[in-house]
Design a protein that fits this description.
There is one protein chain. By secondary structure, this protein is of the alpha+beta class. The protein has a single domain, classed as 3-Layer(aba) Sandwich (Aminopeptidase). It is about 30% helix and about 30% strand. The chain has a 9-stranded mixed sheet, with helices on both faces. It is globular. The two termini are about 20 Å apart. About 30% of the residues are buried. Bound molecules: coenzyme A. The site of coenzyme A has 22 residues, from helix 2, strand 5, helix 4, strand 6 and helix 5.
């Protein structure tokens, strides 16, 4: 069996995260309200860590850019019991002609610290090539221990970004990396996203 990170699930496939029982799928253009409701339920601390400012949601223009199939990819996560209740949003925003994509990740407070962020970032890493990215970049508050720990654990390089932020660069697997699944089958213990038809990991 392929390691989930190298399985390249179909673009519209739902992915199950075993430890939380949540499902993640590409976001739809009509889901801005649900995503902004997620923002309204998040603590100020979580919103600050996500945006490094006082933002409380996304504008219709931003959401259109993130979901119109151009240089951005966006996913929403929800619990199967409440499909309309978005509990996390993940974005990769590339630039035309650029080779990196900016990461955006926000998980509702009660769902944090349950390895969902790790699984979502791993998923993003498998998908960035679709928008021509060879690396994922992020600007992280230096007190955001969870995010820094997560990025470091996935092999990102971290550098002082000035003021109170750390710049992170996470290289994406190359085509060559993705052609050697046998090697990864020898390291099956990582937490990832699995196609929803698979048994969840615990
Ligand atoms: C940051 C965030 C995405 C991390 O996702 P998460 O699901 O909470 O994190 P995980 O459970 O996958 O944990 C990642 C790692 O950080 C560690 N960790 C989690 N919370 C921690 C905390 N408060 N302090 C120290 N380490 C922490 C975990 O133990 C785990 O390490 P491990 O793999 O060695 O066990 C999520 O908490 C979030 O949305 N926060 C608010 C918005 C934000 O910060 N976005 C990122 C902006 S760049």
């Amino acid at each position: 069996m392929l390691h989930p990170e190298n399985a390249s699930p179909a673009v519209d496939e739902e992915l199950r995260h075993g430890p939380t029982g949540t499902l993640t799928r590409p976001a739809g253009a009509a889901e801005l309200a649900a995503v902004n409701e997620l923002h309204s339920r998040c603590s100020q601390g979580s919103l600050y860590k996500r945006y490094l400012g006082t933002r409380t949601g996304l504008t219709p223009g931003e959401w259109h850019h993130m979901t119109n199939g151009g240089t951005a990819l966006t996913w929403v996560t929800y619990s199967p019991e409440s499909p309309e209740h978005v509990i996390a949003v993940l974005q990769l925003v590339g630039s035309s002609g650029g080779d990196s994509a900016d990461l955006g990740l926000l998980i509702e407070d009660p769902w944090q610290n349950r390895r969902l962020g790790t699984a979502l970032l791993r998923h993003a890493r498998t998908q960035g090539l679709r928008i021509g990215a060879t690396a994922i970049t992020g600007t992280v508050d230096r007190q955001n221990t969870a995010m820094l720990h997560l990025l470091k654990g996935l092999g990102a390089s971290l550098s002082f970004g000035g003021g109170s932020v750390i710049d992170a660069v996470l290289a994406l697997p190359t085509i060559d990396d993705r052609l050697v699944p046998a090697q990864r089958e020898r390291h099956p213990g990582s937490v990832g996203m699995e196609p929803a038809g698979y048994l969840p990991r615990c």
